[in-house]
Design a protein that fits this description.
- The protein has two helices and no strands.
- The chain is mostly helical and 73 residues long.
- The longest helix is centred in the last third of the chain and has 42 residues.
């Protein structure tokens, strides 16, 4: 969840910095293109964070099951 919030915060920061510039960035991309790229990156970051959270949750469940089995012995 923290990684999701960090990713959204970074995307917001990039968007705000991109909007505050009046001239075209050095890349030649428009502010809209930068915002679109930031949104795409945020989407990928969210997917990665969700996938990682699922893996960590599964690992925690496995550990809990193993610890429960050991405690039962």
């Amino acid at each position: 969840m923290n990684k999701l919030l960090i990713a959204l915060g970074l995307a917001t920061t990039v968007a705000l910095v991109g909007c505050s510039k009046e001239e075209a960035p050095e890349t030649g991309a428009t502010t809209g293109e930068h915002l679109e790229n930031a949104a795409n990156q945020a989407g990928h970051d969210i997917e990665d964070a969700s996938r990682e959270a699922a893996v960590e949750t599964e690992r925690a469940m496995d550990n809990a099951a193993e610890n429960t089995a050991q405690a039962a012995d």
